[in-house]
Design brief:
Layout: H1 13-24, E1 30-33, E2 45-51, E3 60-64, E4 71-73, E5 78-79, H2 94-97
Antiparallel strand pairs: 1-2, 1-5, 2-3, 3-4
């Protein structure tokens, strides 16, 4: 789990402009979900496949890794900062749960 000290920065206006340019060039960027992303695990990734009109606060269209769905998020729910290697939040103890002992 990421602590408040190491929480990644949400997407800035500059980040969003760069993401839009990457999408236009056919290179959808990878982003990671922050603790503010509703319904998503912090530290998991997805590709931004579209930037909609900013009238709606959730204007970034993201396809989470391993999914065919496209979901909308706000800049506060995403970051370009890749989490440190190691166990992602919510995976601790899974191996122990799958054993028969």
């Amino acid at each position: 789990m990421l602590s408040a000290r190491t929480s990644p920065e949400p997407l800035s206006d500059s980040d969003i402009r760069q993401i839009s340019a990457n999408i236009t060039d056919g290179r959808p960027p990878i982003v990671w979900f922050t603790a503010h992303a509703v319904g998503m695990r912090e530290g998991y990734s997805g590709k931004v496949i579209g930037v909609d009109d900013r009238v709606d606060p959730d204007f970034l269209r993201v396809r989470p890794t391993g999914s065919k769905d496209t979901l909308c998020f706000s800049p506060e729910e995403l970051t370009l900062t890749k989490p440190a290697r190691g166990k992602r939040r919510g995976t601790v103890g899974l191996k122990a749960q799958n054993t028969l002992w």
